[in-house]
Input
Amino acid sequence: MKLCELIDERLMDKDMSKPELAWRTYVSTVAAYKWTQGKTIPSPVSTVIICDELDITPEEWFAALRETVA
Output
């Protein structure tokens, strides 16, 4: 599973919108949409917040990141 798919899946599991994720991670809504479309990868600071907000473990995050950049 790619990083964009992981983020999008967890957003659905948490019933959280992309604008809400953007607000919680202190970024623009456009940035959050780009993450879920696979156009960009979150910054390290955003990564920590995303993992906390969406209950993503470091192992899940890095496995998805490897799939994304492979």
Q: What stands out?
A: Residues 4 and 38 are 5 Å apart (CA to CA). The helical segments are 3-14, 18-25, 29-37, 44-54, 58-69.
